[in-house]
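step 3/5: co-fold with magnesium ion
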Amino acid sequence: MRKMQIFFKLFAIFIFSKKIDFFQQGVYITFYIVFGVCSMTFKEYWQSNISDGKSGLRAVLFDVDGTVVSGRNPLPGAQETLNFLDKSHTPYFFLTNDSHHSPAQKASLIAKAGITVDPQKIISCSHAITDYAVINDLQGAKVFIMGESGEPCFAEAAGLIPCRDLSELDDCSLVIAGEGKFDWHDTFQAVMNYFIRHPERKLIVPNPDSYWPYGTSGRMGIGAGAQARFIAGLLKEMQIEIELVYLGKPHKPIFDCALKHLRQTFGLSDLQPQQVLMLGDALFADIAGARNAGLQGALVMTGVTTREILSATPAGERPELIFESIG
Ligand SMILES: [Mg+2]
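step 4/5: write tokens
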């Protein structure tokens, strides 16, 4: 097996030393993974990309869990890869559906896995609240938040006035599905009745996820997306349709937000979506989401997607690029 891996590694280096296009590189890497051997890491690919620039890629977005860390453990080569990107001045950000933690809080969680991350490089699904507020002319509007939405609060940073007092619910222009611990019984009941009275108002869902890994024994927590859909489902039984506005992966607002940050932070005003690579471990949230937003998607085999899942995925839905790990 070891000899086989060395052979494929040498073959991969040969492939990347040749002047072949992005699509062909993807086909070769897909071939490796389907046949059970993928010796190429993202770092090796990016080193090659920098040297020949043939792919046209100019920036990278990283998913966090399953890509950079796994719970409180670092994934192989993650810190070295980030150091390399910093050294080579590669524009990059982290993209997370964690709407519970502010960038500083998220950076300190990642630090517990031994990975040092600049909080300024973290984009949460809740950052997209700012764009939503601007587009819909909501600055200064009072909004009700179910649970928590970062500390400092994302909604406040977006120019909104956050409210958690159920007695003031009717004064709020919309509801945001936050995360963390809160009184589900009283909150869900009050919010459900708010939408019975105001079905035209929106339920904003920064994190669309139904569940999330909770602890270390394979337990799962109920996600903010599932909570929002629970309330919408109850209303639907009463023939009341409300609009859920999703912001996080795989939905477009978080990718649009990341593109805006890449252009502004790195002075890349001409950056096009197809010049950005989204690296993640989830076929739907990361890869399909990136494609729908016009970005390139690359899968890492260090998270939720197994080789069995990949083999069972229709060819048209597989990512162009698949890597063994980030680094
Ligand atoms: Mg992930």
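step 5/5: annotate
Residues 2-97+251-323 form a domain with the Rossmann fold fold (CATH 3.40.50.1000).
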